[in-house]
Amino acid sequence: MKRVKTLKKRCPDKTALKPMEIKVIGYEVLEKRAEKTGTSARIYVPKSWIGKLVRAIRIER
Fold it and tell me: Structural domain boundaries of the chain?
């Protein structure tokens, strides 16, 4: 069986390399540091946010 490599396209137009202004309307905001877990990272939010639509915005390069 041949193993197929998946190519990950990361920032093909380099937009993530420069800061941008993003306007967001919401109800609460948390500022947290993402924690390493295995091969990825995560942030924890309050239990009351379970089932809610949440957006995370990276604010550091």
Answer: 14-61
* DSSP letter assigned to residue 7: P
CA distance 37 to 24: 28
Please give the Cα distance from 17 to 29 (Å, whole number). Answer: 24
For the question of whether the overall pTM of this predicted structure is more than 0.70, the answer is no
For residue 7, pLDDT beyond 60? no
Among 29, 32, 50, which residue's Cα sits nearest to residue 41?
A: 32
Distance from first CA to last CA of the chain, Å, rounded?
Answer: 40
Contact 17, 11 (CB under 8 A): yes
What phi and psi, each to the nearest 5 degrees, are found at residue 26? -155, -170
